[in-house]
Design a protein that fits this description.
Layout: E1 18-21, E2 44-45, E3 49-57, E4 65-73, E5 80-81, E6 84-86, E7 96-98, E8 106-114, E9 121-131, E10 135-145
Parallel strand pairs: 2-10
Antiparallel strand pairs: 1-3, 3-8, 4-5, 4-7, 4-9, 6-8, 9-10
Length: 146
């Protein structure tokens, strides 16, 4: 799913954050480039897991990047670190080191995010890719936890 980064106001090194229903597949079956993602009709998070799809652009070729995801309460307060499982990983965790694949110019990422224990309310879902020497690349969107 290509994204048009010229039409967004956020960090030019990341696409918009697209929400999908979490894929009900074996952990090894969800890989970068997987077809059959089902977009969510709105930003209402009702289940225990949600999928997040985004792209990173023009990152330095030589470095890996560190991924993390969090929910920031709209009313203020401490961000909530989310457990996630990026495509092709075998476990959930709060942070993952990733490499650019298949190309450095545009890298697609799919995350399964766990929402167990997150209280209902308005949040900003934020995904951060930290690249040594280039800083944090952030993509985010408003969501409602039900």
């Amino acid at each position: 799913m290509p994204f048009d980064r010229t039409t967004r106001a956020g960090d030019a090194r990341a696409s918009d954050l697209q929400l999908t229903n979490a894929l009900a597949r074996g952990r090894r079956d969800v890989s970068r480039g997987t077809r059959g993602l089902e977009p969510m009709p709105d930003a209402a998070l009702a289940g225990d897991e949600v999928g997040a799809l985004f792209e990173l652009y023009d990152l330095p070729v030589q470095d890996a990047y560190q991924l993390r995801a969090e929910l920031v309460p709209s009313a203020g307060g401490t961000p909530i670190a989310l457990e996630m499982r990026p495509a092709w990983e075998t476990r959930f965790g709060t942070s993952f080191a990733r490499t650019r694949w298949p190309e450095a110019g545009r890298v697609a990422e799919y995350l399964t995010l766990r929402l167990i224990g997150v209280a209902p309310g308005a949040y900003t879902l934020r995904v951060v890719a930290y690249v040594a020497g280039a800083g944090a690349v952030v993509t985010e969107r408003a969501v409602e936890r039900r």
